[in-house]
Design goal:
Elements lengths: L2 E6 L11 E7 L8 E8 L2 E7 L14 H9 L5 E10 L9 E3 L2 E4 L27 H13 L5 E2 L2 E4 L8 H10 L3 E3 L5 H7 L4 E10 L16 H24 L2
Parallel strand pairs: 1-4, 1-5, 5-11, 6-8, 7-9, 9-10
Antiparallel strand pairs: 2-3, 3-4, 5-10, 6-11
Helix pairs in contact: 2-5
Bound molecules: hypoxanthine (HPA).
Hypoxanthine binds next to strand 5, strand 10 and strand 11.
């Protein structure tokens, strides 16, 4: 039986669709604390759900133990991992309420643990990261969103910032010049750690606000006002992820 992983971001810390489920504390070599995941059945699928920021205590993006999280997920030998992540819109063609399936990343984070290489092995694992997401999985997400008749943006460059502060207007202008379409705080180093462990990983982004200096965030970002949009875009993203899992479950 295949196992599928869903990573929830700030819009999804509990997964409500399990028919039956158990909480599992996964011990990892990182940081002492086990990673709590929920494993259960959803429409006949074996699904593991991880709340990226944690369950009880919420870790801000710069304090997430990404190595522990991804390591814990690898223990389930998943067929695929779909990560949800909320973002601000940079591309003038985009508006809050959309969802986007990224195909590239610009990494502006600093000081995060980005690798399982310890410096104590005899070889260095220089992963290829030309395409940071698993492109078969990304295309499966696009197909599922199409099949479900959803509006979505196919592709785009995700800019990852350090957070937890939001950006300055000048930073957003710079990210746009660099080629970014939307901005979030959490897909890195999650994506490269998944790649190091050879785990098929892709993302669905929820566009919840205009980035700093844009649209109705011209003077200020009111992140508290994004709750409804976050809920709605997250619901649609979960539907797409489950459709992908169903499609992949059918294929040998
Ligand atoms: N910037 C960074 N991360 C975000 C944003 C944003 O505007 N919106 C949601 N996550």
């Amino acid at each position: 039986m295949k196992t599928f992983v869903l990573i929830g971001g700030s819009g999804l810390d509990k997964f409500g669709l399990f028919e039956d489920s158990e909480q599992i504390q996964v011990k990892t070599p990182y940081d002492g604390k086990p990673v709590e995941v929920t494993r259960g059945t959803v429409e006949g699928l074996d699904v593991v759900f991880l709340s990226r920021h944690g369950v009880k205590v919420k870790r801000p993006p710069h304090m997430i133990n990404f190595r522990a999280n991804v390591w814990a997920l690898s223990m389930f030998e998943p067929d695929s991992i779909i990560a949800l992540a909320s973002v601000g819109c940079i591309d003038p063609e985009h508006q809050p309420g959309l969802i986007a399936i990224p195909d590239q990343i610009l990494d502006y984070t600093s000081g995060r643990e980005t690798s399982y290489n310890t410096g104590l092995e005899e070889t260095i694992n220089f992963i290829d990261f030309t395409y940071p997401f698993d492109m078969d999985l990304k295309e499966a997400i696009v197909k599922a969103a199409d099949d479900l008749d959803m509006d979505f943006v196919d592709g785009g460059v995700y800019a990852c910032t350090q957070g937890p502060r939001l950006e300055t207007a000048a930073e957003i202008d710079r990210f746009q010049r660099d080629g970014a379409h939307y901005v979030g705080m959490t897909l890195m180093p999650e994506a490269c750690l998944a790649k190091e462990l050879n785990l098929p990983y892709a993302a669905i982004c929820q566009l919840v606000n205009y980035a700093a200096g844009r649209g109705d965030s011209k003077d200020k970002i009111e992140i508290d006002k994004t709750v409804d949009i976050l809920r709605d875009t997250t619901d649609r993203s979960v539907k797409i992820a489950l459709q992908v899992f169903k499609d992949r479950n059918k294929n040998p």
